[in-house]
Write a structure and sequence with these properties.
single chain; alpha/beta; 3 domains; Aminopeptidase; Alpha-Beta Plaits; Immunoglobulin-like
Length: 446
Amino acid sequence: MKLWMMISLFLLLNQISHASSPSLMVRLPLNEQSKNYLKKNVIDVAGINFKKNEIDALVTETELAQIQQSGIKILFAFPQSLMAGPDKEYKTPEKIEDFLRDIHAQYPDITEVKSIGKSLEGRDIWAIKISDNPRSSEVEPAVLVNSMHHAREIMTPEIATDMVEYLVKNYGSDPKITRWVNQTEIWVIPMFNVDGNNKVWNDDAMWRKNTRDNHGVDLNRNYPATWNACNGSSGYRSAQDYRGPSAASEPETQAMMRFVEEIKPVMNISYHSFSELVIYPFGCRPKRTPAHEAVESIGKEIAQKINYAPGTPWELLYSADGSDIDWMYMVHQVIPFVIEVSSNSEGFQPDYKKWRNKTVERNRPGWMHLLERLDGPSLHGAVNLSDYQSLEISSKSGVQVYRINPNGSFYVMLKPGTYDVTFKGSKTKKLTGLEITSKKLIPNNF
C-alpha cells in the first residue's frame, strides 16, 4: 500500500475512534531537518532511535499534513487510537502507595516510607529509604532514584519498584547488596508525577505534564537553575514541554527541591522513557559540566552496562532547559543522570507481559553500577564545619570547588589521578599529591 493511502486510512480510523488530540504517532528520519522542524513547530517529540536513525513525534492531523507539505520524509504514521492505553498490570498512584507500605511491612528493619510533599491535587508523593538504619540520618553517602516526571512513561515506576524489591529481598544473602545497604542511604521515589499519572489512567493515555489548570506544566522543565535559559522549553501552555509561568512554580517541583536539599544525594538517576539513552548535564548547548571527566565517564560506564547511547541533551537531540539534573548538579553538586528506558518499538506503554521483565532486568546493571561506583575513585570524610566550609580540588584538568554539607560531610566522585586538595573556611589545610585510585577517606584529624 502506498504511503499516502496508508495515512488516509489511518486518519479515517482516527476520526471514527474519536481519539484525543494529538492523535497520531509519526516516524521521521533522525536528521537536522526533522529535528529543527519539530522544535520550531513545538511538536511533541516522543523519542528517538539512534540505531535506526528514527525520531517519533505525537501530532494532530493538521500537523501531519503540514509535515507532508514541508517535504520531510515520513517513514510511518499510525493513530494513537489503535493503542488500548496502559495495561492494567502497570502501577497507578494507589498501587505505588500499597507497594511501598507492603515492602515496609515485610522489611521494617531496613526500610522507611515517607511523603516528600503533596501534588497539586493533594496526593502524597511517596519515597522509600533503604538502609541498615533507616530511621537515622547517618554520615553516609545518599543515592536518589526517581521515576515518572512525565506521566505517560509508565514503565519507569517498574524500574524503581524492581530496584526496591531486588535490594530488600537480597539483603543479608548477597554480600554486595548487603554492603550497599549498610554503607549507603538509598532513596527511591517510584512515581513523582502522581496527578499526571492519574490522568493517564482516567482521561488521556498520552498525558505528559502535571494537571495545572487543565493544561499542565512539564515538571522537568520547571526547575530554576536553567529555567527558560536556552529555548529548551516552551512558553505556550498547550505545548508538552510548557515550562510553567515561573521557575519552580509547581508544588511537585518544590517538593523535590526540598527533598534533595534535605538528603544531599551524591548521585541521582531520573528514569524516563523512551529512547534507550543515558543523559547527563548540561541541557543547554554547548555547555558541559566543569567536572565532566567524572560526570561523563560515569554516565558512559552506565550506558555501556545497559547498551544505551550516552550524551548531553543537546548532543543527542536538542537543548533542554529547566531539568532536574541540571538543577541538582548546579545547586547541590549531585552527579545526576537521566536514563531513557525502552526503544521506539516499545513506546511509552509497551505490552506488560512482553516487555516489563525484560526492561527491568536490562536496567538493573545501570543502577547497580551507580551504587558500586561509590566505592570507586572518590574523596570522602567529615570535618568540623566551623573550621571548613569548602574544599578545592586541583588536577591537570583544572580546579573544582565543592561545598561541605551542613553535617560536615563531603563525598566527591573523581576520575583516577593525582590531586591537590585544599580545605577552606576559618582555617585552611592543603593536601598535595593525593593519588586517587579508589575510595579515599580523609580523617577528621588530618
